[in-house]
Amino acid sequence: MAMKKFVYYFSMLVLLFLTSCASSKKMTSTIKQYDVETMGVGVDGTYLIKVTDYFKTTDESVYLDGLKRDAIHSVIYQGIPAGNGSVNQPALLNNDTGLEGSEEALNVFFEQKQYLNFINNVVNSSKNIVKIQGSKDYKISVTLSVNKDALRKYLIDNNIIKPLNFLF
Predict the structure, then answer these.
(1) Number of other CB atoms surrounding residue 151 within 10 Å
(2) Which tens digit of pLDDT belongs to each residue from 134-148?
(3) What mean pLDDT is predicted for residues 23-40?
């Protein structure tokens, strides 16, 4: 009897592990494969952030697109951490602000690369590329400016998040 219970629980544990390791190409709130650091306060309505991610290539068009996607993803889903004279900025999308169907709309937003419209500029002198020893990957960082006010307006206009006045 104890052996049957052990086999049952072990099987359930393996099944749970395998389903949690399944990968998805869609950009969702649960993915966090990058690091974001606040670099300072930007012009009103912008975040100046440093984004770090891992890439298999040093092709600038590939990694810049990926880092821009990561920056917008962070602003929408995770928020921006405090640092360098700025306070913690909460995520634009959370349980209180999200509208029904927002996940699907955001997947389209990322697939169609609409997020590129909300990157003001990339600080070229901030690029840092480090080859990971014993790997084919590169750790790449860049500082960029995100227009969070325009992004918030876009998300509100497209019924992805609620306007700020929903609290009143």
Answers:
(1) 24
(2) 999 999 999 999 999
(3) 65
Domain ranges of the chain: 31-163
Tokens 């099987």, residue? 11
Write the CA distances from 68 to 111, 133, 139, integer angstroms: 13, 25, 15
Q: Using DSSP, state whether 11 is helix, strand or coil.
A: helix
Give the C-alpha distances (Å, rounded to integers) separating 1 from 4, 6, 12, 39: 5, 9, 17, 60
3-class DSSP state for residue 16?
Answer: helix
* End-to-end CA, the chain: 59
Cα separations in angstroms, 141 against 36, 71, 121, 127:
9, 11, 14, 6
pTM of the model: 0.78
